[in-house]
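Repro:
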Amino acid sequence: MQQQSQQGLAQQQNLQQRIQQQTQRLEDSDEEMELLQEQLGEHELALESTQLNLQDLEVDKKSVETQLGQARLEFSQKQQQVMQLQARKDSVLAQITSLGRSVERLHEQRAQWRDKQTEIESRDGSQQQLDDGSEKNLAEQLERLLTLRVEAETKMEQGRHGINQLEQVMRQLEKQQLQRDNEIQQADRVLQDERLIERELEVNAEHIKKSMIEQNVLVEKLAEVLPESINQEQLSRLLEQCQNRIKRLGAINLVAIEEYKLQQERKAFLDLQHDEVIDALDSLEQAMQKIDKETRARFKQTFDTINESLGSLFPKVFGGGRASLELTDDDMLSTGVTIMAQPPGKRNSSIHLLSGGEKALTAIALVFSIFQLNPSPFCMLDEVDAPLDDANVERYARLVKEMSAQVQFIYISHNKIAMEMATQLLGVTMQEAGVSRVVTVDVDQAINMTDQTLAI
């Protein structure tokens, strides 16, 4: 019983310690949360103050814009007044000019009158004075002109004074406008600065909120991972171990992420190229297989056709016997072709074992077999009948005659039998040294001339 009570007491003490540790951890977390909330509140107050300042600046800006509009309106009105005064000035100047010309004319008239008066006084000594009416009229005109001149000069002076005043007003308005523009620019700069500060405060507040969320998540994860019985000393040792492991990792390569992204992009590009190459190879292999299949089919068809023609032409050339084509390999694409011939009275053998004349006749039969498959417009034979005897030459000539229905033959021969089978003869002779002469003979025409001669 005593042991059980001691064990229960120990468990109770252990639970109390764990509760105290968890309570301390919660208190630490609460203090940290309160600190963060205080910082957030300070930033929010600063943000509100900035927003109020921003609103004040907006109001000031609107007031400055209103004053600027009024100043521009006043400036426009003053400009119109200046234009009107300028027009009046031009009119007064025109009147002054006209009056000046009138005064000059009056001075000239007065001088003329004085000249006339002098002339009259010198010519008639008894006449001592001018007509009183004319003198009085001239004096009135002069007085009126002088009065107009004084009035014009007065108006002109007033106009100049008004222009000077307007110029001063314009300079003052321009100065005020420049000052307002500077104030507006300064207000815009302050507004931009306040907006930047507002943005920075918003970003800082967002970072603080994220930090609080991350710290809460970390606290929850630590509470889940750490055992309940861990104490402060064990936590310190665990933290120190983690710090040592981080130090052993060394400096962090911040460029590695960008390099990894670049290598990923390069790998994706190379994989795409690899897939394209594989597709191209597959397409080429399919095309090659199709070409090989078509080649085998056409080769087999052509081979069978030529072999059949050779089997029918060989007896005509030799007067009997048989011949055929044989493949040296089962692969149609790499096989060779052997000519097997059996002239009359001989055994079947390869063309290499035949005599010269037999080889020539066998080759002629093969060439004509190919012509039957794909006829050419004409064929030229150069002394093919040279190794043949007369009997074989006659067979050769008859075959050429028969084939001439489809192909035009030009052959060179010194054999009379072959010449007799031709329809046109062209001979080259040299009666004189170094001078060649071509002689043409139409065989049918020559035969007709011979028959006519014999008939006579």
